[in-house]
């Protein structure tokens, strides 16, 4: 099948910001975007449990109705015109956090018609990562949907919790906030998929 | 649950670098130690961001002009072009290519770059291009300089241009670096040599192309890019 050798990956390095992050890429919502506003934030920890200040996260998600703005989604015609589903955030917000303002995605069709629980596809790039990492962010307050999710349910039960974003205490006037920390290695190492 | 045969070509770990590559110090505390889990292949992975011409500004492809304040940037002008295909050889059309690089003196405009080399006030070193219907991209820039880094004694990065590509879906994402032919620093660079396979390493070295060189303007380099994640045909996807 594969007739051409793939081009190898290389690290994003420490100086990607002016090439990839111009400001605002972490804000997925705008006027008219449908759905429940949420904030997803957290930190990326290395093997010394130190927060990595120079990583970058990308998220890709469906809109509030569970539709992707992409030609492979047969429902694309009904996709929210005010939502692309793609976001990028460096980890240099206050406290070495990344931060996204988005909407809670809807359930997405999965294999054999089994719905997938609301989730974000997540990629991590950083100095020291010669190839990017890939994981998923599920929501801890969607227990029933998560347990029925065909991807989540097949994972090692001891490691599933590393994919859960946990609701934070509400701040008056701010959208609900979820915390999703990523541990590159060591205790509580995040479950990473083949990228 | 048994794994279904993949619908999309997987990453080829004979060419992509492993996470742990001890000569590159920063990998030691950042590489996952547990095995990667087989990837899901659902609508979430078959899709990804779609960009159009409306997301590209007229000077985004010309790094010699897109940051000019009072003069031309200093250094040797170059033209870089190539074709983006999937690993079945099909062109990847209308996909976003993002590039960024150091200036001719080996200095990034980034605030954390401490290298004692001059900043060029007329050069940022960032550009964006959409591939055309044949999967081709082209941009104009300044040949980047080498720069020192702290990985080991007297460590220097070979001149390179960073590339970021999306392809058709989540699984074809690639961030990489383009190098220049005949560079003696390549043999000494732990990032480049993190690629396990010589053929893979050669993939990242651009080729001088006199047909791309523009008379009286600048030298031309060709850098073709192959993304993984091509959709397999039903025959190839049939479980064994």
What characteristics describe this protein?
heterodimer; A: 195 residues; mainly beta; Protocatechuate 3,4-Dioxygenase, subunit A; 9-stranded mixed beta sheet; two-stranded antiparallel ribbon; 3 helices; B: mainly beta; 4-stranded antiparallel beta sheet; 11 strands; disordered C terminus
Give the fraction of residues assigned to helices of chain A: under 10%
Radius of gyration of chain A: 17 Å
Shape descriptor of chain A: globular
Mean of all residue-level pLDDT scores of chain A: 96
**What's the CATH architecture name of chain B?**
Sandwich
CATH class of chain A, named Mainly Beta
Question: What name does CATH use for the topology of chain A?
Answer: Protocatechuate 3,4-Dioxygenase, subunit A
Helix content of chain B: under 10%
Largest interface, Cβ cutoff 8 Å? A-B, 73 and 82 residues
Percent of residues of chain B in beta strands?
15-25%
Mean of the pLDDT scores of chain B?
93
* Sheet of most strands of chain A: 9 strands, mixed
Total of domains of chain B: 1
CATH fold category name of chain B: Protocatechuate 3,4-Dioxygenase, subunit A
Number of separate structural domains of chain A: 1
The quaternary structure here is heterodimer
CATH superfamily of chain A: Aromatic compound dioxygenase
N- and C-termini, Cα separation of chain B: 16 Å
């Amino acid at each position: 099948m594969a007739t051409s050798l793939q081009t190898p990956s290389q690290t994003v390095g420490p100086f990607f910001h002016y090439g990839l992050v111009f400001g605002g890429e972490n804000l997925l919502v705008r006027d008219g975007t449908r759905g429940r506003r949420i904030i997803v934030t957290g930190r990326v920890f290395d093997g010394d449990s130190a927060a990595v200040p120079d990583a970058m996260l990308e998220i890709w998600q469906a809109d509030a109705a569970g539709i992707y703005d992409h030609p492979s989604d047969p429902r694309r015609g009904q996709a929210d015109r005010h939502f692309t589903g793609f976001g990028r955030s460096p980890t240099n917000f206050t406290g070495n956090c990344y931060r996204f303002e988005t909407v809670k995605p809807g359930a997405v069709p999965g294999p054999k018609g089994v719905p997938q629980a609301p989730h974000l596809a997540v990629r991590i790039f950083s100095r020291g990562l010669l190839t990017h990492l890939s994981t998923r962010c599920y929501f801890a307050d969607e227990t029933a949907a998560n347990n029925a999710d065909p991807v989540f349910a097949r994972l090692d039960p001891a490691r599933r919790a590393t994919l859960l974003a946990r609701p934070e205490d509400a701040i008056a006037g701010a959208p609900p906030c979820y915390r999703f920390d990523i541990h590159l290695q060591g205790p509580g190492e995040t479950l990473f998929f083949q990228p | 649950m048994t794994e279904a045969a993949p619908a999309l070509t997987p990453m080829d770990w004979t060419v992509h670098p492993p996470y742990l590559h001890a000569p590159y110090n920063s990998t030691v505390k950042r590489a996952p130690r547990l095995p990667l889990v087989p990837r899901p292949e659902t609508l979430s992975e078959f899709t990804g961001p779609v960009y159009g011409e409306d997301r590209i500004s007229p000077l985004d492809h010309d790094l010699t002009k897109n940051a000019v304040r009072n003069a031309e940037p200093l250094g040797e002008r170059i033209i870089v072009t190539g074709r983006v295909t999937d690993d079945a050889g099909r062109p990847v059309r209308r996909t976003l290519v993002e590039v960024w690089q150091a200036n001719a003196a080996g200095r990034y405009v980034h605030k954390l770059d401490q290298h004692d080399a001059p900043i060029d006030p007329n050069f940022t070193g960032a550009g964006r291009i959409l591939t055309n219907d044949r999967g081709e991209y082209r941009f104009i820039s300044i040949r980047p300089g080498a720069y020192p880094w702290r990985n080991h004694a007297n460590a220097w990065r070979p001149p390179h241009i960073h590339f970021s590509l999306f392809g058709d879906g989540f699984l074809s994402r690639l961030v990489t670096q383009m190098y220049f032919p005949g560079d003696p620093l390549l043999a000494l660079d732990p990032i480049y040599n993190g690629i396990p396979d010589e053929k893979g390493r050669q993939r990242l070295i651009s080729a001088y192309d006199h047909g791309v060189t523009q008379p009286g303007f600048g030298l031309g380099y060709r850098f073709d890019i192959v993304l993984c994640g091509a959709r397999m045909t039903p025959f190839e996807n049939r479980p064994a």
